[in-house]
What does this fold into?
Amino acid sequence: MKKVAFIIFGLTVSLLTSCVKFPAPNPTEPTSKIPSGFNWKTVQELNLSVQVGTVNGIADSYIRVVKIYSSPLLKDGSLMASGAAKPGSPLNVRLTVPTAMKTIYVEEILPNGSRNTKSVEITGTSLTITTAASVKSSGAISANAPFISPTIPLPTNYDVEITNNNSVSVLGFGAGESSAYGNTYKSYLLKEGVNRTAVIDLGNWKQHAILYVKGEYTISGRMDLDKVSVVVLPGGKVTVGGIRVGVIDAASPPAIYVMPGGELYSSKVANIYNCKFVNKGSVEINDNLDVNNSSIFYNEGDVTINRSGRGLLITNFAQMFNSGEVNVKKFDITSNSSLLNDTGGRIITATYYQTNGTIVTNNHEIVATTSFTTTSTAVVHNYCNITTNLTDYQGSTINLYGGSLWQSQSFKVNLTNINMFAGSMFLTTNFTDIWGMNLSSSSADYSVFKVTGSMKTFVSSGSQISGRIEVVYSNLVDGSGTNGRGTYEHLFTDGLSLLNKNQTKNIVATSCNNGAGQIVAPPPAIVDNDGDGVQESEDFDDNDPNVAFVSYFPSETGWGSYAFEDLYPWKGDYDMNDLVLAFRKITYTNSSNMVTKVGVKYNVRAAGSNYTIASAFQLDNVNASNIASVEGQEIVGSAPFNIATNGTEQGVTLAVIPLFNKVNDAIGMSSFTFLNTMEGAHLMTPTKEITIRFTTPVQPSSLNMDKMNFFIVVNNKGESLRGKEVHLPTFSATSKVDNSLFAGKQLHPTDKYKFIDGMMWGIMLPVVFEYPFEFKSVNSAYLKFQAWAESGGVEYPDWYVNLPDYRNDSLIYSVE
It folds into this structure.
């Protein structure tokens, strides 16, 4: 670097004594207030799952195109990502956005060309988005809201650690006691690697306490909980001879909480009484799991009960919310209890029994291999799929919503209201018993009730059928004899219901009804020249089946910037203009949302350095052997980067893609001095582009910005060594780095691309960086930079934006 002004062992280099430093560059006595763990990122990674759903008249097999924008205008070059989704197959994308961004905009484009847009607030790093078009029917919207399980406190430090079989009683804090670590509840940890077989006394009489299990807790007797929660941490395992929950205050955390990767096994009855139970891991019971007396069971994991005649009992005003998998021998829900089987939830049982004021909402799948029985004012809302051998409705209310299917081998009904909404279907082989059935629909379009085997006569059945329902009986004949039309049609009361031998009303296929009612294939809705399933109007290249969608960072017309200091491993003046490279990454994916090629546009905007600087980037999750070619490279010479025939650097395992060996080569000049950093001097530099093609398509998450490891190689004039790499914080060096550079004690102990005081040598910004003049420090030019850094990125995440009081324009390079 041309501008060295730092202190080493008391010697002052006087070449550039006017330089401003941030922070003070003393390698042994750092004075910076930058938090040690600060990562210097101006962007964050979002994990998005965009779920689309069934729309009447459009088969689920057709691709929906999803586009994600940074602006509500959608057409102003703000496109960030695009891909394919189908009902049941969401678009999962890892998206890099500025940390200052608050909202993204998601557009779904249907095969018929209609569009729906939804604004989404960025409330966390994982977002599940359901598009506006993704509804099963107008009646299904409110019932499909996902549930949210309670949380459990996870201490950083535990009040008591259990490491052996010595006697332990889990007791809460007494009067006047509190945690030395700030824990609300006294916390006990059975540590990882500890296999405890001695009983832990959980009969607490003080304030609520929590036992966390990271090791293994195995006892033959029953586990009794009083004012104690048991949390099975990832990797932990609890094996007991029964569970009894006694006294648990209503405001306390869940009595049992099994985290992902945790396991709970009970050989005898688990009695969950008047408390909350959360399972996100694995629960196996060799007897009944009895959830009762206003308890709430949240299951996002696996529940297994394999013992014959035993199962899951939800009773006495209890509630269950399920988005995991339940596999039991019986499932009983009784006495004013309720069940929400949410999206993704699957319940498999031999017998299903529901009675006495209970309400069940099914948003995914219930399978009862023997029987599904409802009695005594039970209510079932079916939005998706229920399959059973015997359906037996007794004194119940059954609501079948659009796109859903209820399928059985045999069907009995007594004193039951069955309400069918447009697009729903009830399918049975045999209809054996009928009394007091009220089968009706208030919809403007038809639903289908279909019997493919035998159907009992409707004569003297005390029943009626009304509304737009097509009853299909495959053995229907004319006349009033066996299977005769005259024995059934007298129940049709309003002239809207139909009775036919063959189905005439089409039920559009959905992910819930398995296409059971679709008799008319929908007409081709798209022109698709390359046969990849994406319509021509939305296919980025409809003549190439390997390219359907394109995504950008930072956006379709936006540019990001890398800015570097070149004095590594020592500090300089931090004008952050030794190399400033603007870039845009373009990711091309196929109709399966796999990456087939990546483009990188780049432009060297500034090079205020007296060193020779080369640049490249490593794809941290892609092997060099998976690069088929790199098009557009203009590498001059063979040092410091020597490229192989496929465009990657020779002699590496991970793919290193060189951009240039000298800045001169990138700008087309044989020599220059302080490129675009001095007042009154400006050179227009060319924009270049490379395209990387992959031998085998790559997961998009392997090519996100947190896996794109851009770096520079710095040499003295006349040298072309490879080893002096400068990377951004959090990124690792390549296999060709000179490891001796990491030996200095002035480097940060956990990140060798930060100084010991936390300062960096490189940064990436999601905008075109308007960098400081030569010798002007970034914190002098950008007035919020220091507050941003010293707050660990919390304050002023948009410090680089041109807002009032954000910068000193007199210190920032600009083209007049």
Observations:
- The chain has three helices and 54 strands.
- The two ends are 26 Å apart (CA to CA).
- The CA atoms of residues 234 and 261 lie 4 Å apart.
- The longest strand covers residues 405-420.
